[in-house]
Hints:
By secondary structure, the chain is mainly α. The chain has one domain (26-117): Helix Hairpins, CATH 1.10.287.3610. Helix content is 80%, strand content 0%. The protein is built from 4 helices and no strands. Helix 2 runs antiparallel to helix 3 (49-79) and helix 3 (49-79) runs antiparallel to helix 4 (85-117). The longest helix has 33 residues, at 85-117. The chain is globular, with a radius of gyration of 18 Å. It starts with 6 loop residues before the first helix and ends in a 10-residue tail after the last helix.
Amino acid sequence: xxxxxxxxxxxxxxxxxxxxxxxxxxxxxxxxxxxxxxxxxxxxxxxxxxxxxxxxxxxxxxxxxxxxxxxxxxxxxxxxxxxxxxxxxxxxxxxxxxxxxxxxxxxxxxxxxxxxxxxxxxxxxxx
Length: 127
């Protein structure tokens, strides 16, 4: 890959990376599924725009963290395919980053549901 290529070419590289992640990474597909469920939750609750913004930002952060974690793991395995404690540590840290964001997304979804059923957070009271 060359440096300083046109924007459209860099966009093609990014889309190729997304396609590879969708094809080859079960965790990424799972997180895409969770994101779809998150959007469904927003639609069902008719959430105010601020909830949409928070959840979309968090879902994007989870997907981006998973892509970075996959990149770290792929590079580490290429550089040193042997078992190495420091490489294992780096992989664990990448996985932990995804985990922390995922827990945050679950907690935010719980807050959204709590607000919805208790008439807070910009929701109209339930009928």
